[in-house]
Specification:
The complex is a heterotetramer of chains A (about 425), B (about 200), C (about 200) and D (about 350).
Chain A lengths: L1 H5 L21 H12 L9 E5 L11 E7 L2 E8 L7 H5 L4 H9 L6 H16 L5 H29 L3 H22 L8 E2 L2 E2 L7 H23 L3 H7 L7 H7 L4 H4 L7 H4 L20 H24 L18 H4 L3 H12 L4 E12 L2 E12 L4 E5 L1 H7 L1 H5 L4 H11 L3 H5 L1
Antiparallel strand pairs in A: 1-2, 2-3, 4-5, 6-7, 7-8
Helix pairs in contact in A: 4-5, 5-6, 6-7, 6-13, 6-18, 7-8, 8-13
Chain C lengths: L1 H22 L3 H21 L3 H25 L2 H10 L3 H21 L3 H5 L4 H7 L2 H12 L1 H22 L20 H7 L1
Chain D lengths: L2 H38 L15 H11 L10 H19 L28 H22 L3 H32 L4 H7 L13 H15 L10 H4 L9 H26 L15 H20 L7 H30 L1
The chains are: A alpha+beta (about 425), B alpha/beta (about 200), C mainly alpha (about 200), D mainly alpha (about 350).
């Protein structure tokens, strides 16, 4: 893989370097005024044409359905419909042990599967009071940020393709491949990793992973600069994205839109900082914030986040502590595999965990983590024993899809695809 | 109230983000702002807050269904509480509670004060609650899901239809007595399309 | 000889297209037949070696105007057309009278004209000598008949302005209720009173 | 063999050969489009059929012909069937007036004069515009007759877009007509005697750029592919088409591309003339072919690199930028030509 990376076409060129005469930040009132301007288009009146966009449509990113009422090309009303991919994950969770739930969470947001594993494990650990060892926290942080990178790169390709450039999609896929290769090396799977475990992770870092990972994160910022060179200063992209789909911070709170969309509205809200988990409170990174609350700024936020992710991974690799990669907690965690093969106590623990499951105390917890698409909350109510009594995944896409009418009414059909892509909805995440 | 948060600049780089791990991990005591908020709620509603539970660093208030709208509206509008975001509204089924087996939980988040609160109410079979879509529009899908999964009706909801299951699905799948396997309803009855 | 045969073919097709255009119930089909007629007329112009006129016939009639026509038909509901047909019953007789009048006009004009005189001095040789059909056409339009040309353009402009005013709708507020609009937020006062 | 008979034979030969040549060019244009797309996207493109996959297009056509032809139940069936032909035929007609070599002059073939044009008549440029106007019908009627909302939106977009850009196209071509003093493509090429700096693209640079941009819109290609914007309208006016009916629209698109490239080469880049007079030993058709290839490559390059405009931006570009510019270009050209000579 290394030779492929080295022969890449990326040039180490810093594109943006924030200009000193940055435009003044708009206030909330100004943003509302800008948004009201798109709504004015609604006052033309006229005949309404109803179109069902989806469930099978090239740019609904799955089986999302939007029933549009159009006046010409302007969207007058929009009714989002979800559920075409409903698999009853929450019901299944009530009949599985905590360990068995982890593979189910993979299938929520399959573009950032590890982040979903991680969110569930954080909640379960909070319920069971498991202390995660330092090395496991660092490995989790690395994997979490890798999944954020993979998700954002895929997002970028798809977003740009929705605006009409197919070539860029392939470029993004090419770079996502390096990340998936890393995941394959780390977890054995490219998409659905099931890598997190209660109290740690499934495996230690494999040999050679660190060098390979370092190569990728040295190389990715150059690629990100290349993306920006292609997209950020592209005049058509600017015209298509600037002041389109404005969603102010107040709108975001009201519709529970989180993640990059909220940060593009000028709110420095990031659960990695605000309610830190894994190793995020031991690492320096910045929260990406932009202030114009439009599609263009959501793009900028994600670009900055990708750079920050590389930074986080580098720090994690630098400061990777030694020690066990899963908690030595016989009641709740699986043992390390190498101990199972040597140590009879560990083997008994393994049997116990696999056949009976972790014994959780009675109680209810809610834990939210910052997954690439926004905030994912996991609610677990336990009545004791190995199976939860109720699990609820508060997934970001669920709410992002719901907010589509507030985002897109008054805009045009062509903007709708840009806006829908910009809030990043994945249907596995939304339909549960 | 959100404007204060809005103009807040991003945290400067390098400002010490390293916290005392033990303090974060232990997290048994409530955040000071949340303590103030809880005190204010108690002062405002007194005995109407039926139960109060504090566990895992989270605060839960149990209220009567009749107080649902009142308490949540207060939580949103009172400056010290400032719960401007409804993180999640969900249902639960506890068959061991014979009279009021259904629970509806609202997880509230405040961007102003960065604290969370859980408000819970118990309902009998066939019970109903007022909708909170007027307070937080994001409750729309949540309430639809709670209705289809548990059969809890939300009065005044603008569009209370099935959300995740097919429109001709029968039964409430997340109730404990709903079987995990087998076919219950859900057969395609095209004459019902668009009517349910 | 070939020319005459071709002329007859195109003329018959043009007339057939014209008849089909007025007899079709489906307005779009009728318009398509009208375009067909225009194309046949253009073909006849080609036969007379009036290339420029033929091409302009296609551009103006078959191209620009008809596309606008098709637009109008598509954006209106076809059913409303059928209803309007019923409401304008009385105009039928007026239309019949007018068409008889126009037909009489045509007959009178055509009766006094022979084809040699209609062609006038513009034989193919004369046109070629004067520098091609386009040039002759342009000189006739912009020198000899400038006044009628300008009058016609002013009339068309007036019609265009009138059409725009007619089409422009009164501003109405967008749809009254939207499915996604949340219910009213209770005012703090109302909440206070309840407690 | 007397001269009129020879001319008739030549005419038949040209009229039969030209469409065949164009269809072959279309097949390879599609192949190269896919190869270029692969090149731009770091993949290989078609490889299986024929050497380097070069026969892929023929295989595709066979596949399309053998596919089921689905006609929507509630479509307007006669119009639905007619639309592909309306889109397909006009492009070929324009080739009749496109000169691909010297016209007139001394006998050059078996003692007879072989004109490198099918029909030389004095309104060639206007015929090109007229056929563009007719081709709109194919798209608009396809959109309307499918009885699908996406198709209708696509058809309407295509119609409005083609009409708007045809104006700018016509006015920028008028600049060339004024300079050449003729509407005949043959005489326009005659006006561009000499090496490449004497062609019309230097005095008419504004017109050439406008014409090129407008031609992209006319061809419905990115960044102006509103009519079939895949991410917005599924496939626009083509949504309900399948099999060879769809294939005919697809082929028509490429025929149009070849024709428009030929017209641009003729109007601005000296048609069949060589860039240097001494290079005229290589026959004209080859030069024209090369110019067409270069222009097609530029079209493909643009398609695979640029974003799509939004619909209202497209219209404002057409009406507020290109149209006034082309009018100004025409006015300046007319003044200069009448003053200078």
């Amino acid at each position: 893989m290394s030779d492929v990376i080295d022969s890449g076409t990326a040039q180490a060129r810093d594109v943006d370097a924030t200009p000193s005469d940055a435009p003044p930040r708009p206030t909330l009132e100004q943003l509302k005024e800008r948004k009201a301007r798109t709504r004015q288009r609604l006052e033309t009146g006229g005949d309404i044409m109803t179109i069902s966009m989806g469930p099978q449509h090239p740019s609904t990113h799955g089986v999302f359905q939007m029933v549009l009422d159009l006046d010409g090309e302007v969207i007058v009303d929009l009714r989002p419909e979800i559920g075409n991919l409903h698999r009853g994950v929450e019901k299944l969770c009530e009949h599985r042990t905590y360990h068995q739930i982890i593979p189910l969470t993979d299938r929520l947001d399959y573009n950032s599967a590890f982040a979903m594993n991680h969110g569930f494990c954080e909640a379960a650990e909070k319920l069971m009071g498991v202390e995660v060892p330092a090395r496991a926290r660092y490995i989790r942080t690395i994997a979490h940020e890798l999944s954020r990178l993979a998700n954002h790169i895929l997002w970028l390709g798809v977003h740009i393709m929705d605006l009409g450039t197919q070539t860029f999609f392939v470029i993004c896929f090419r770079d996502r491949e390096y990340l998936l290769d890393l995941f394959e090396m780390l977890t054995g799977a490219r998409l659905t990793h099931s890598f997190a475990r209660i109290g740690g992770v499934a495996k230690d870092l494999p040999d050679g992973f660190e060098q390979r990972c370092r190569k990728v994160i040295e190389f990715l910022p150059k690629r990100i600069a290349e993306y920006e060179r292609i997209v950020k200063h592209n005049r058509i992209y600017y015209k298509r994205a600037k002041d389109v789909g404005i969603f102010t911070s107040e709108d975001c709170y009201a519709w529970r839109v989180t993640g990059p969309t909220l940060r593009a509205a000028g709110v420095a809200r990031d659960l990695r900082k605000d309610e830190p988990y894994a190793a995020y409170d031991e690492i320096d990174f910045e929260v990406a914030v932009e202030y114009n609350a439009d599609v263009y700024d959501r793009f900028l936020v994600r670009m900055t986040e990708m750079r920050e992710s590389c930074k986080i991974i580098r720090q994690c690799l630098d400061g990777l502590p030694d020690g066990p990669y899963v908690a030595r907690d016989a009641a709740h965690s699986l043992p390390m595999k190498r101990d199972v093969l040597r140590d009879s106590a560990a083997m008994i623990q393994d049997f116990y965990q696999v056949f009976r499951g972790p014994q959780a105390p009675k109680g209810e917890v809610y834990r939210a983590v910052e997954v690439p698409k926004g905030e994912m909350g996991v609610y677990i109510r336990s009545e004791g024993g190995a199976k939860p009594a109720r699990v609820r995944f508060t997934t970001p896409s669920f709410y992002h899809g719901q907010a589509m009418p507030a985002l897109a009414v008054g805009e045009m059909v062509s903007d709708l695809v840009a806006i829908f892509a910009s809030v990043d909805v994945v249907l596995g995440d939304s339909d549960k | 109230m959100s404007a204060a948060r809005f103009v807040q600049p991003p945290r400067p780089a390098g400002s010490s983000t390293k916290r005392d791990r033990t303090a974060v991990r232990a997290a048994t005591s409530l955040a000071p702002t949340l303590a103030t908020a809880a005190a204010k709620l108690r002062r405002r509603f007194g005995a109407r807050l039926l139960e109060e539970e504090e566990s895992f660093g989270e605060l839960t208030f149990v209220i009567a269904p009749g107080d649902w709208m009142r308490v949540l509206a207060f939580c949103k509008s009172a400056p010290d509480l400032g719960f401007d975001q409804l993180d999640c509204l969900m249902g639960d089924h506890l068959p061991e509670r014979a009279d009021t087996p259904f629970a509806v939980l609202a997880h509230l988040t405040s961007h102003t004060h960065a604290h969370r609160l859980r408000v819970k109410t118990f309902l009998p079979e066939g019970g109903s609650l007022p909708t909170v879509t007027g307070l937080w529009p994001s409750a729309g899908f949540d309430e639809r899901e709670t209705w289809e999964m548990f059969g809890v009706v939300f009065q005044g909801h603008p569009d209370l239809r099935r959300l995740l299951t097919a429109e001709d699905f029968e039964g409430f799948p997340l109730r404990k007595d709903f079987p995990l396997e087998g076919i219950v309803g859900g057969r395609v009855r095209t004459e019902l399309r668009g009517k349910i | 000889m070939t020319e005459k045969v071709l002329f007859v073919i195109f003329a018959v097709l043009a007339v057939a297209g014209g008849i089909a255009a007025v007899t079709r119930r489906n307005v779009v089909h009728g318009l398509l037949f009208l375009v067909f007629t225009f194309l046949n007329v253009a073909a006849i112009f080609f036969l007379t070696q009036a290339y420029f006129l033929a091409v302009v016939q296609i551009v103006v009639y078959a191209g620009a105007i008809m596309v606008l026509f098709v637009f109008v038909i598509m954006l209106l509901n076809l059913r409303t057309f059928e209803q309007e047909e019923q409401t304008h019953r009385r105009q039928r007789w007026l239309a019949l009278a007018l068409s008889v009048l126009v037909l009489a006009e045509f007959v009178i004009v055509l009766a006094g004209v022979t084809f040699t005189s209609a062609r006038g001095g513009f034989t193919p040789e004369a046109i070629a000598e004067a520098g091609g059909g386009t040039k002759v056409f342009g000189e006739a339009l912009f020198n000899n008949m400038l006044l009628p040309f300008e009058v016609a353009s002013v009339v068309l402009l007036a019609a265009m302005v009138g059409a725009i005013i007619l089409v422009k709708r009164e501003k109405t507020a967008g749809g009254a209720t939207r499915s996604w609009e949340p219910g009213e937020e209770p005012t703090p006062e109302a909440v206070e009173e309840e407690v | 063999m007397s001269d009129p008979v020879a001319q008739l034979v030549f005419l038949i030969v040209k009229a039969v050969a030209m469409p065949l040549i164009i269809i072959t060019m279309v097949a390879f244009a599609i192949y190269f489009e896919r190869k270029f797309a692969g090149f731009f996207q770091a993949r290989v493109g078609p490889t299986y059929l024929g050497p380097w996959g070069s026969l892929q297009s023929f295989g595709d056509v066979l596949k399309l012909i053998s596919k089921e032809d689905v006609i929507p139940l509630r479509s307007d069936k006669s119009v639905f069937k007619l639309a592909p032909y309306i889109a397909f035929v006009p492009a070929f007609l324009v080739m009749a007036v496109l000169p691909f070599g010297p016209v007139g002059g001394e006998p050059n073939l078996f003692g007879h004069r072989f004109d490198y044009v099918i029909a030389n008549f004095d309104a060639g440029v206007v015929l090109f515009l007229a056929m563009g106007a007719i081709a709109v019908y194919g798209v608009v009627l396809a959109g309307w007759s499918s009885n699908s909302n996406y198709s209708l939106l696509g058809g309407l977009r295509a119609g409005a877009q083609m009409i708007s850009y045809e104006l700018a196209m016509g006015f920028s071509a008028a600049g060339v007509m004024v300079m050449a003093g003729s509407m005949s493509l043959v005489e326009i090429v005659d006006g561009q005697k000499g090496a490449f700096w004497e062609w019309y693209w230097i005095p008419q640079i504004v017109g050439a750029i406008i014409f090129f941009i407008a031609s992209i819109a006319e061809l419905n290609r990115t960044p102006f592919d509103m009519a079939e914007a895949e991410q917005e309208l599924v496939a626009g006016y083509l949504t309900e088409y399948s099999g060879m009916r769809w294939g005919m629209f697809y082929l028509a698109e490429y025929v149009n591309m070849i024709v428009v490239s030929g017209i641009i080469s003729t109007l601005y880049f000296g048609g069949w003339r060589a860039p240097f007079e001494s290079w005229n030993v290589i026959p004209g058709p080859i030069w024209l072919f090369l110019k067409i290839c270069v222009l097609i490559f530029i079209y493909m390059w643009i398609r695979w690199t640029i974003f799509r405009y939004r619909y209202n931006q497209l219209m404002s570009v057409g009406w507020k930028v290109l149209l006034p510019l082309s009018l100004a270009n025409l006015a300046v050209t007319a003044v200069v030509v009448s003053v200078v000579g």
